Amino acid sequence: MYHYYATKEEVYLDLMRREYAAWAAEMRVSFKRRMAREEFCRELAESLLGRRLILQLRAINDVSLRSKCGDEAIKDFQCDIHTFFVELAEVLRRQFPNAAESERAMFRMQLTMYSYSIYPMLSYPEGFVGQGGRMSLCGEVTSIEHLVTKGLMLLSAELH
Predict the structure, then answer these.
(1) Are 45 and 145 in contact (CB under 8 A)?
(2) At what angle do helices 144-155 and 37-49 cross, to 10 degrees?
(3) First to last CA, the chain
(4) Buried b vs exposed e over 132-159: b needs ≥16 C-beta within 10 Å?
(5) Is residue 88 a contact partner of residue 27, using CB atoms and an 8 Å limit?
(6) Does the predicted TM-score (pTM) go above 0.85?
(7) Angle, CA 117 vertex, CA 65 and CA 53 arms, to 5°
(8) How far apart are CA 57 and CA 70, in angstroms?
(9) 148 and 45 in contact (C-beta within 8 Å)?
(10) Which one-letter DSSP state was computed for residue 138?
(11) Quick one: pLDDT at residue 6?
(12) Which residues make Cβ contacts (< 8 Å) with residue 32, sequence separation at least 6?
């Protein structure tokens, strides 16, 4: 492996590039038509949860990655995944044509931050997350997909 990559951080960045490219391609197909906000959030939650590798990799500490890769590698990576964010912007423009661009941009930033918190929920030990992706917290039992959909509903509340 180190014949192709000098460091494990390069492997990380390459995996992320590939996953974001695949996700952008999926979004181009899955989000062609306009949907009601709740349906859109449910579909986006399903898409996001289907990208478990991205969620897992995003949970890795970016600070150490930046210090080991250097600014140039991070800038190259950001350019490489730009296509995904362009596709996401197009999906949001199609889904929420009446929303201001600043509202859609805020949703994209919040979605990025929100996605950092999902993988830890998926990796809880048995007992917290049971069969069928159901989670038990404080006596409440719900599916992770439902939790993520509700979170996306809250994030998208200002989009019209």
Answers:
(1) yes
(2) 130
(3) 47
(4) eeebeeeeeeeebbebbbebbeebbeeb
(5) yes
(6) no
(7) 60
(8) 18
(9) yes
(10) T
(11) 82
(12) 94
What token pair was written down for 41? Answer: 């959030």
* H helix intervals, the chain: 8-30, 37-49, 52-58, 62-69, 71-95, 101-115, 118-122, 144-155
pLDDT of residue 117: 85
Longest CA–CA separation in the chain, Å: 50
**Each residue of 46-99: pLDDT tens digit?**
999 999 999 988 877 666 677 788 788 888 989 999 999 999 999 999 999 999
The C-alpha torsion from 157 through 33 and 49 to 143, rounded to 10°, is: 60
Query: How buried is residue 107: exposed, middle or buried, by Cβ count under 10 Å (0-12/13-18/19+)?
Result: buried
Q: What is the dihedral of CA 15, 24, 92, 63, to 10 degrees?
A: 10
Would you state the structure tokens that stand for residue 72, as one six-digit string? 């140039």
The larger pLDDT score, comparing residue 29 to residue 124, is at 29
Distances in whole angstroms, Cα of residue 18 to Cα of each of 27, 44, 111, 140: 14, 19, 19, 37
* Total residue count of the chain as it appears in this document: 160
Cα distances from 103 to residues 70, 98, 114, 117, 154, in angstroms, run 32, 10, 16, 22, 13
